[in-house]
Amino acid sequence: MTAKTWAYEDFVEGTSLDLGTKLVSAAEIIEFAREFDAQPMHLDEEAGKASILGGGLAASGWHTCAMFMRMLCDAFLLDSTCQGAPGVDQVKWKKPVLAGDQLTGSLVVVAKRLSKSKPQLGFVTMRSELFNQRGENVFELENSVMFLTREAAGSLA
Amino acid sequence: MTAKTWAYEDFVEGTSLDLGTKLVSAAEIIEFAREFDAQPMHLDEEAGKASILGGGLAASGWHTCAMFMRMLCDAFLLDSTCQGAPGVDQVKWKKPVLAGDQLTGSLVVVAKRLSKSKPQLGFVTMRSELFNQRGENVFELENSVMFLTREAAGSLA
Question: How many beta-carbon contacts under 8 Å exist across A and B?
Answer without folding.
Answer: 108
